Structure formats: C-alpha cells, structure tokens
Amino acid sequence: MGTARPQTLQRLAVESFALSADTTQPQVEVPFHVIVTLHVRENVSEINNLQLPMLAQLELLGDERKTASGPNGTQYQELVTVVAHTDGRIVIAPATLQAIDARDGKPKQWFTNDLPLSVHSSAARIANGVAVGLFAHVVRILAALLWLALLVGAAVLTIFLLRRRAPVASPPGVPVSYQQAPLVSEAERRRHQIEDALLVLRAERTRSAAVRVRAAIWRVIGAPEGETLADVLRRPGCAEGDLHDLLVALERSAFTYDEDLPSSINDACAALERYAGSLT
Amino acid sequence: MTVERQPGDLHDALAKTIVGQENVLEALLLALLCNGHVLLEGPPGLAKTLACRSLAAALEGEFKRIQFTPDLLPSDIVGTRIFDQRESSFATVLGPIFANVVLADEINRAPAKVQSALLEAMQERQVTIGPESHALPDPFVVMATMNPLDSEGTYALPIAQMDRFLMKINVGYPTREEELQILDRFAMADTQPVRCVATLDDVRSWRAAAHAVHVDEKLKRYIVDLVAITRAADRVSVKSVGGATLKAAELIDYGASPRATLALAFLARGRALLVGRDFALPDDVRAVAASALRHRIGFNYRLATENVSADAVIDAMIAAIPAP
C-alpha cells in the first residue's frame, strides 16, 4: 500500500479539532459519549479523511455525525456512543485529520488531544457515594451559618449549569496541533490501529475483548455493523491474504465455544501480527 | 488408517449427478443432519425425484415415492391390515412411508386426512396400524413437493401442518449454462449411478455432531430477534411492484412460531457442520433464515392485491435485524 496522495485531500483551514467525552469518569456498563468536534473556515458538506481513534477497550454502540455550515465556516461533530466493560484507566488516542492546509497549501495531519478516562465499577461508585454522603453530613454539622450554605449552593448550581453547556472534558479553545511532513500513509495509520488491537487482545484474552477487537477491525476496513462475515469478505481486498485470515480468525474467537477460545485468541493474535507486518 | 467420512462427501457425490440446484442439495443434507423434513415448491421436471433417489443411493438407504392424488387413502401411505384366509388371521402390510428417503410428490393433491396422516408420521416417527405401533426407519427424511402453477383441484396445506417441515425451498429453473450441462450429462442412455459414499450409521453420527455444534449467546439472541420481527414488523418497509411503500406488518396476519426459532438454531448448526465448523456463525443463521421462516408466516390477502412477493417481505425482515 502506498502513501496517502495529497491531491485527494480536502483543502481546509482548521480552526479547532478536539476530542472530549460527556464524562471523564464513566461507569462500567453505563453508556457514555466520546465526541470529536472540528471547526473549519470553509463551507463543506462533509469531512473526509477524519480517523477516529481505535476505541478497542470500549464497546461501540453507535455513531452519529452532524455537519453544520454557516457564515463562520463548518462545524462538524461526531458523537460516538460507547460502553466500558471493565474498570480502570483508559487513554483514548487522538483522532486524526488529513487535509491540505488552506493557509499554506501543504498537506498536513492534524491531531486532537488524547482523552484520559477513569472507568469506575458500580461497587466503587456506591462506596464513593457513601463516603461523599458522610462527608456532606460532617460539612452540614460544621456549617455555622445558613446564608453561607445558600451562597455555596448558588455557586455550585452556577458551576453545574456552566458545565452542562459544554461537555465536561472538552478543553476550551483546544490548540490545533498538526504534523507537517511526512504525511502518515493510510497503511501506516492502519498498522498502528492493528497494533493497538493486538495489544488489547494480548492483554485481555476474553470473549468480550475478542468481540470488541472484531468490531474495531471491521470499523478500520469501513464495514458497517450488522453485516455478516460473508458480506465483509466481499469487500475489495478482504477476500484473500492476511486480511481475510484475520477476519476469519476474529470471527472464530467471537463465536467459538469456550474451550476453543484460548486457541482461537492465539490464532487471532497471530493473524493480527501477520496483517500488521504486511502493512509495513 | 481409516478416513472419516464427512457430510461434504455426500454433497460431492450428489453434485456429480444433479446439475445446479445447490439449494435443494443443501436442504436435503440439512434435513438429514437436523432430523427434519423439506417442502419443495417448484414446477415439475427439476430433478426433485432424482435428487431424492440419489440421496438414498448414496447412503445405501431405501427410497420410496408416493404420488399424492385426490383418491389416496391414509392406508395407502402408512399401511394396512389384511385378512390371511389360510392362517385365519390379520397380517400387517407396511406402507411406502417405511423408507429412509420418501418423496411425497404433489402433497397438496390429496385431501386433508391423507396429508395429516403423513404429517403425523413425520412428527411422531412412528405409525399405528390396528393395535400395533411401528417405528419408522432411522434416518427418515420426507421431501414433499408442491406445484405452484397448477392449483386447480388442490388442497392447500394449513400453516399448522406446514410448520412441521424444517424448511421450505423454492426451486427455480436452472441457468442456461446448467441446462447445457444437463444436456451433456444426460445425453447417454445409461447415466452413471450414484456411488455409495456413506452409511446410515455415518448419518446418525453426523447428526450427533451437528447437535453438539456450539451456538453462541449472541447468535441465540439474533435468532430470537429474527423470529420476533415476523410477529411485529411495523418498522419494516417493503416496496410493491407498483412502487408503493408498505409496512410489512400490514401484509402479515401472524408471525412464525417458536418452532421456527428451534428450526433456525438446528439449521445453523447443520450448516456449520456441512462446512466443517464446530461453531455456528451469523452467516449460517442468515443463510437458512428465509427457508426456515418462509412457510411459517401467515400472509394476508394484501400480499396479492398489493403485488408484493412473500420472499421480498421476508428478505426485508431479515435485513432489518443487524447481525451480531
């Protein structure tokens, strides 16, 4: 696979490009949103060459895109609904955009910020809730004056309302970062995504991780959810070679019986490795 | 070293005799693996009898063909008791249903009493003649045919009876290339007989293997969703030949029964085994869904008045459920 061809890229003046979430402390099994926002000076009907991060540690539930054009340019927002199945710290890698910079006519790759999330289990949330309740009780006892409590309440309410207007983790006025030359090729980017998937599957050798990696790989090759393997294998480039073997191996790890799962995950890891190797 | 025989060997042996008709061959093998029966709808002359006869020959099993007519009696199928004057006692004569592969040709030409005698035997896998019950041979596969072109003087099968068939296949005409192959293959007076490639014991062991094929929880939910949408298809739209958009629910009186859910799971297992897998995939379910649901959905008169094909409605319902 060759490098990305600059002439196929859109000509854009990127003003902001950010990755956020509606909470930085999602709970296990509770869906939340990861939001990619992009503002460009031009009026365009769609944004091409925007790559979402892998999201392999999360299960993807839905993806909604909105593009609004006006006198100030185009505001693009992609709302990805996800759910975490295990607690712990997750860092979502930056989303990327490849385009020709309208300011100097050079092909560039822009990056969003990365997004650290701290996933809590329900038990931790309940324990946390109890602790917070006790603390609030002590604070109430210590509070001497009612007017002070009212003032604090008003301040909390104001902060809450301000926070509701903008997503919690959205950094205000995110500086646009970009890498000039060389432009990262499609193959290179895909290789990074496959390597991410490999890391996830090696670290978590479970059915649920296999299903998430399968969904992520389908996303990488542009296959929509709801298709079957036979549909995906009809796509160009998927019918043979390392990618075919990888898709078949992931399908097996997602649907085989429990006793075969370790061996099927070994095969899937080997297939991921071979496919990543074929992209170098 | 002995080489273990696989269901695929049976398929290859049949494909040497039958040109095309891949869906009929697959249906016959799935019926064998899933211990079910097949209903075929299609015009005459499409090698249905040859396929059944070849299947029986490939298994060294017994084949019988019953031509259904309006004057057929239940005893003509299951058998009867006749009085032996020399012995001064009744003797039981078993009917043609006692075979491994039975072709019930034009099943809708016989009245309901005869149809139900056959269908009861298919379900119970035994028949009662006089005071004695007789078990049918194992394996026992019935392939029933219906002709959609010539409906005068026929007795339509009620949905409750159709439900007993594991799958219904619409048999179409061969392609031009297949028809040329048919000409070449059957030009000789004596065609090659089908070679025996498996035994009835092999079929029984394949059936046990099919039963053990793993169906994941995600697939089970997919199967249940596929059947459920036939009962509440409000969100599914279909286009009539005239271009009007209709809700599928407006064309359906009643959806598929839980027997369809079981049939889908059996067939998905069988298909997985046919391709040499011991776990089923969404592709297996989707591949057999139309055949398992087609005869279990009660369409109303609007299907005809709005000029919509039943298969188009079924395909739209299947497409409306995303695969896991």
**What's the number of structural domains of chain A?**
3
Tally of structural domains of chain B: 2
CATH superfamily of the largest domain in chain B, by name, is P-loop containing nucleotide triphosphate hydrolases
* CATH fold-level assignment of the largest domain in chain A: Immunoglobulin-like
Oligomeric grouping of the chains: heterodimer
CATH superfamily of the largest domain in chain A: Immunoglobulins
Tell me about this structure.
- The complex is a heterodimer of chains A (280) and B (324).
- Chain A is of the alpha+beta class and 280 residues long.
- Chain A folds into 3 domains: 6-120 and 169-179, Immunoglobulin-like (Sandwich); 122-164, no CATH class; 186-278, no CATH class.
- Chain A is built from 7 helices and 11 strands.
- In chain A, strands 1, 4, 8, 9 and 11 form a 5-stranded mixed β-sheet that branches.
- Chain A is flat and about 75 Å long.
- The termini of chain A are close together.
- Mean pLDDT of chain A is 80; it is low at 1-7 and 168-175.
- Chain B is of the alpha/beta class and 324 residues long.
- Chain B has 2 domains: 7-207, 3-Layer(aba) Sandwich (Rossmann fold); 213-320, Magnesium chelatase subunit I, C-Terminal domain (Helicase, Ruva Protein, domain 3, Orthogonal Bundle), CATH 1.10.8.80.
- Chain B has 13 helices and 13 strands.
- Chain B has helices spanning 7-15, 22-34, 48-58, 74-78, 112-124, 159-162, 176-185, 200-211, 217-229, 258-274, 282-293, 302-305, 310-320; strands at 38-41, 63-67, 79-84, 89-94, 101-105, 126-129, 132-135, 141-146, 167-170, 237-239, 245-247, 252-254, 298-299.
- Chain B has a 5-stranded parallel β-sheet with strand order 2-5-8-1-9. A two-stranded antiparallel sheet of chain B has the order 3-4.
- In chain B, strand 3 and strand 4 (89-94) form a beta hairpin.
- In chain B, helix 1 runs antiparallel to helix 2 (22-34), helix 9 (217-229) crosses helix 10 and helix 9 (217-229) packs parallel to helix 11 (282-293).
- The longest helix of chain B is centred in the C-terminal third of the chain and has 17 residues, at 258-274.
- Chains A and B meet through helix 6 of A and helix 11 of B.
